[in-house]
Amino acid sequence: MPVLPPPDPRKPLDGLTRRTLLKASCGLAATGVLAGAAAVTWRDVVHHAATNPLADGTPVLVLVTMYGGNDGINTVVPYADPAYHAARPDLAYTDAEVLPLADGLGLSPGMTGLHALWQSQQLAVVRGVGYPKPDHSHFRSMDIWQTASPDTPVSSGWVGRWLDGAGDDPLLALNLGDVLPPLAVGQQATAAALSLQAAPKGAPDGSVLDHFAADDPRDGAAARQVVASYAAARTVRSALAPVTDAVDPQAASSKGADGLSAQLDLVARCLAMGAPTRVYSVSLSGFDTHADEKATQSAQLGLLDQALTRFRQSLATTGRAKDVVVMAYSEFGRRVRANASEGTDHGTAGPVLVMGEGVRGGFVGDQPSLTDLDAGDLKVTTDFRSVYADVLRSVLGADPQRVLGQDPAPLGLFA
Fold it and tell me: From which domain of life does this come (predicted)?
């Protein structure tokens, strides 16, 4: 499958050409990244579940990437802080609107399912998460989050490096969608990619895939390799039609069959049948809220909450609920002060949400100050690699030093 940077919701691909996309992909093809990528069909998943089922009690990680830079301040809301209301008078929630947590903080009003998880001590809110020397670029910041290398660009993702030492089952990690994220690419191993019937938001649709999969005598060796991967994506799309047709219409809703609920429905099906997958990667776009943020972000957080709530309900019928940990993150938060368009601009730190029956619920890390700022941005209080290290140790049973190049002190995310 093609490995591309995450989509920017502000830049639809209307002007995309075969030449520009193949040019972008060829750089990765030349390094051998595409050669290890594996497109799998639903039949492959069923086969591996039957022949090598995941043992009961094996922990599973579900990564939810919120593309666009989610505003953490209006997600975990410091409603009791006067500085919050002063900085964003038209965007601020009142104490009567938020779903209260503790310490003068509350969840965005539409996050009722996650609020219930908090009350049952199955939601950890890691505060002020970011990385040193923040970068306000979507692409560079997401690259840092997905490779876990803030100082030097590298060609492998943190899940990919875990895969390098985790075994040879091709379904150990599975991405839901046509575009394989950088986090899933290792040096020797790569996550599998399970395509959905409809193209993911911001990615080429079926007709565009047909265009990119067509042979051209002018293509060089790297371009031919990319073309072959798009042809494979087209084949997988056709093969999966009977499966994705069965996706619950409520899950697909207005977002099409690539909606987060539809992705998580397939994850739940994989878990129910015992697929040997330890890491699932799903995503939701639309968090780049430069204007009219309150309504837009509230809707996106509502989709997130509804999808995760449906997912947890589905898990309750599979016997796997106790094994699954969900982690939701975004590439950066937003600036403290609202802009003139009733939105917020690219910022730095934000909360990471970790949920599951084995999670130690509550707040983790210090709450960033809204007045002691770094040029208008929140100061990072928790390094994102500390979150990854806890997940690697407790969920994936891996050595953080080998994957991250460091072994941060435990945050205590898991009971």
Answer: Bacteria
What is the C-alpha separation between 369 and 75, in angstroms, rounded? 16
Structure tokens at 34: 């595409």
CA quadruple 348, 353, 358, 362: dihedral, nearest 10: 80
How does pLDDT run across 26-35, given as a tens digit for each residue?
A: 433 443 343 3
Assign 214 a pLDDT band (cuts: 50, 70, 90): low
Q: What pTM value is reported for the model?
A: 0.81
> Beta strands 382-383 and 105-107: pairing type?
unpaired
pLDDT in tens, 39-67: 888 889 999 999 999 999 999 999 999 99
Kindly report the average pLDDT of the chain as a whole number.
Answer: 84
**SS3 at position 144:** helix
Are 315 and 62 contacting, i.e. CB atoms less than 8 angstroms apart? no
Domains recognised in the chain with CATH numbers: 44-205+257-404 (3.40.720.10)
Q: Are the beta carbons of 174 and 280 closer than 8 angstroms?
A: yes
In one-letter notation, the amino acid at residue 283 is: S
Distances (CA, A) of 235 to 39, 52, 213, 247, 367: 9, 25, 10, 19, 48
Torsion, Cα 295 296 301 307, to 10 degrees, reads 110
Say what the pLDDT of residue 82 is.
98
Distance between CA 134 and CA 327 in Å, rounded?
21
Contacting residues for 162 by C-beta, under 8 A, at least 6 apart? 173, 186, 279, 392, 396, 398, 403
Q: Which helix (H) or strand (E) holds 234?
A: helix 221-239
94-127 pLDDT, tens digit per residue, is 999 999 999 999 999 999 999 999 999 999 999 9
Contacts of 184 (CB under 8 A, 6+ apart): 157, 159, 160, 163, 173, 175, 190, 191, 193, 281
Lookup result for tokens 């957080």:
301
Tokens of 273: 């049948």
